[in-house]
């Protein structure tokens, strides 16, 4: 997320969500999903609309068993 | 070999921006529909509801930036995009998010996409005349299909007047740069619409909230534009401009 949004750790709090963090807009959200796919996640179209917060993404990655540093 | 025609000058940008395209307080009739994406029937999950996405020809953004005429917030959210086509050619455009909700910080210099709304003109490269108009927003192409009247009061009540006013801009849209970028927008919007109608016709027959939620995902993910086909169309259109007017800087 830091890379896609070009933000530091402190700018992406645990309660971060789309359109609430500078850089996390709709276009960058899709870029983030593409980045996750590139790291082994399966992201279908509906999931793009669901994974709209840091917590949701973190939970999804944990359930999927994907480790993303 | 002659030099390519340079990008429009500041004077040319000022000319096109000076065309009178103001139609009173139209926003009072629609709660600034075109400046937000919060319409009750648009169940969008990713686009910011109290905001609007801006698209600029890169030359326009650069002009507004260097002359300190950008609206508040544009510089912070601006993103430069480059789309390669026909080998070594690149279409440059800029997107930004407008959070002003209809309260422009610099109304005289609001983006052309806002001034032209609810339409975008298309200029025929052969005649250099405006030969048609497309919807001013990608979101606006389906209201009739969905069985709802267009939320833009200006389009509903004064659409012909707006198109007449836009035609007065024709003398200032002669530069191949303008013709090409407006044509590229037309090709893009047309392709989005055609793909949606061909591959997801069932969406247009159901609940608009479901339609817009799905459309948003399809649109943002790029699923509505076949990149290879769009690239070919863009190259063909580019050649039609250069054949008639000459090479120009993109």
Descriptive account of the structure:
The complex is a heterodimer of chains A (69) and B (250). Chain A has helices at 2-5, 26-38, 45-50, 54-64. Chain A has 69 residues and is mostly helical. The longest helix of chain A has 13 residues, at 26-38. Chain A is globular, with a radius of gyration of 11 Å. In chain B, a hairpin with a 3-residue loop joins strand 2 and strand 3 (89-98). The mean pLDDT of chain B is 95. Classes of the chains: A mainly alpha (69), B alpha+beta (250).
Quick take:
Chain A is built from 4 helices and no strands. Chain A is mostly helical. Helices cover 41% and strands 14% of the residues of chain B.
Secondary structure: elements and pairs:
The complex is a heterodimer of chains A (69) and B (250).
Chain A: H1 2-5, H2 26-38, H3 45-50, H4 54-64
Chain B: H1 10-18, E1 52-57, H2 58-66, H3 74-77, E2 79-85, E3 89-98, H4 112-116, E4 119-123, E5 130-135, H5 143-146, H6 153-167, H7 176-199, H8 208-220, H9 227-245
Largest sheet features of chain B: 3 strands, antiparallel
Alpha-carbon Rg of chain A, integer: 11 Å
Mean pLDDT of chain A: 88
Order of helices and strands of chain B: HEHHEEHEEHHHHH
What oligomerization state is this entry in? Answer: heterodimer
Give start-end ranges of low-pLDDT stretches of chain B.
Answer: none
Helix percentage of chain A? 40-55%
Helices of chain B, by number, come to 9
Strand content of chain A: under 5%
The total beta strand count of chain A reads 0
List keywords for this structure.
heterodimer, A: 69 residues, mainly alpha, 4 helices, 49% helix, globular, B: 250 residues, alpha+beta, 3-stranded antiparallel sheet, two-stranded antiparallel ribbon, 9 helices, 41% helix
């Amino acid at each position: 997320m830091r890379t896609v949004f070009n933000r530091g750790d402190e700018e992406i709090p645990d309660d971060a969500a789309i359109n609430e963090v500078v850089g996390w807009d709709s276009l960058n959200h899709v870029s983030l999903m593409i980045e996750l796919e590139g790291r082994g996640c399966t992201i279908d179209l509906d999931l793009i609309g669901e994974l709209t917060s840091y917590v949701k993404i973190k939970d999804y990655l944990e359930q999927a068993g994907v480790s993303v540093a | 070999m002659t030099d390519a025609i340079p990008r429009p000058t500041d004077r040319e940008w000022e000319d096109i921006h000076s065309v009178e395209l103001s139609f009173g307080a139209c926003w009072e009739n629609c709660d600034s529909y075109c400046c937000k994406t919060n319409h009750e029937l648009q169940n969008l999950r990713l686009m910011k509801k109290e905001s609007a996405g801006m698209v600029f020809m890169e030359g326009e953004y650069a002009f507004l930036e260097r002359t300190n005429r950008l609206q508040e917030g544009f510089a912070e959210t601006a993103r430069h995009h480059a789309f390669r086509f026909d080998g070594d050619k690149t279409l440059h455009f800029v997107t930004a998010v407008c959070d002003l909700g209809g309260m422009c910080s610099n109304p005289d210099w609001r983006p052309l996409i806002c001034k032209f709304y609810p339409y975008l003109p298309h200029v025929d490269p052969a005649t250099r005349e405006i030969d048609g108009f497309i919807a001013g927003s990608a979101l606006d192409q389906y209201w009739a299909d969905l069985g709802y009247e267009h939320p833009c009061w200006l389009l509903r009540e004064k659409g012909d007047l707006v198109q007449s006013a836009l035609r007065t801009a024709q003398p200032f849209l002669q530069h191949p740069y303008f013709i090409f970028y407006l044509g590229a927008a037309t090709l893009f919007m047309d392709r989005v619409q055609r793909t949606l109608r061909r591959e997801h016709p069932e969406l247009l027959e159901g609940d608009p909230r479901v339609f817009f939620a799905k459309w948003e995902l399809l649109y943002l993910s790029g699923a509505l534009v076949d990149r290879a086909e769009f690239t070919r169309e863009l190259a063909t259109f580019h050649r039609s401009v250069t054949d008639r007017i000459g090479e120009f800087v993109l």
